[in-house]
Amino acid sequence: MENRRNSRVNRPNYKQYNKPAQTGPNPDEMVFGIQSVLETLRSDQQIDKLYMEKGLSNPDIQNLAFQKRVTIQRVPPERLDRLTRKNHQGVVCLIAQVQYVKLSNVIADVYERGETPFFLLLDRITDVRNFGAIARTAECTGVQCIVIPGRGAAAINSDAMKTSSGALNHISVCREPDLTETVKYLQESGITIVACTEKSARDLYERTTDLTGPMAIIMGSEEDGISPELLRMADTNVKIPLLGSVGSLNVSVATGVVLYEAVRQRSIVIQTES
Known about the structure:
Blueprint: H1 4-7, H2 14-17, E1 30-32, H3 34-42, E2 47-53, H4 59-67, E3 72-75, H5 77-83, E4 91-95, H6 103-112, E5 118-122, H7 128-140, E6 145-149, H8 158-163, E7 172-176, H9 179-188, E8 192-196, E9 215-219, H10 228-233, E10 236-238, H11 251-273
Helix pairs in contact: 3-4, 7-11
């Protein structure tokens, strides 16, 4: 009779092959401990994420974070323990892999160069690899700036840099504390806000869909799309036609579809003018 116990020895471990890739921060991207975080806040380094244990109070860190416009994310101690097993003293920060720029400076530079603003707003895109793929497409399509919220966005870490194939080194990234105020500011600057949502009645490919002027496209969260308040504020909205049974596209794919439709329309305008 076959020995059933021994027959299992050479079976492949499918869980091992299907193990998901690690997307946590590298040790050189992370600073922990009260004094170390304080010194990082006092330095010229830009912080991508600042996590503080719920209930912990440290006026020095809180005041410096406010001055540097770094949002403190209150988390349970278990979240910090997952980031590092060392003595974090209730505070951990992640160093930004890019240099954030001011949106006002980007707008001024774009207009001074005689270019048409072409921006991308990402409302709570939390997957690092989605963000990296979106950044790669944005850079390839001529987007001048990606705007992300201070809270609820993917960390721009080494995984994001790798997935973007270096595109994040060539495109401006702005981090804004409140996207609703950002939308108001863009509109006041003469920039049309276009929301990409499946709730829209307007097809992306309709003749009346105009993506040629000064524009900022909003793409929404992987979980629930664009937040209702931003949808209400948008000047117009569009949807990507879906002809199959699946009800939605991956956000990085959807972003590519919309951006390249804008490129197509803008190239026709340029050819017409020349």
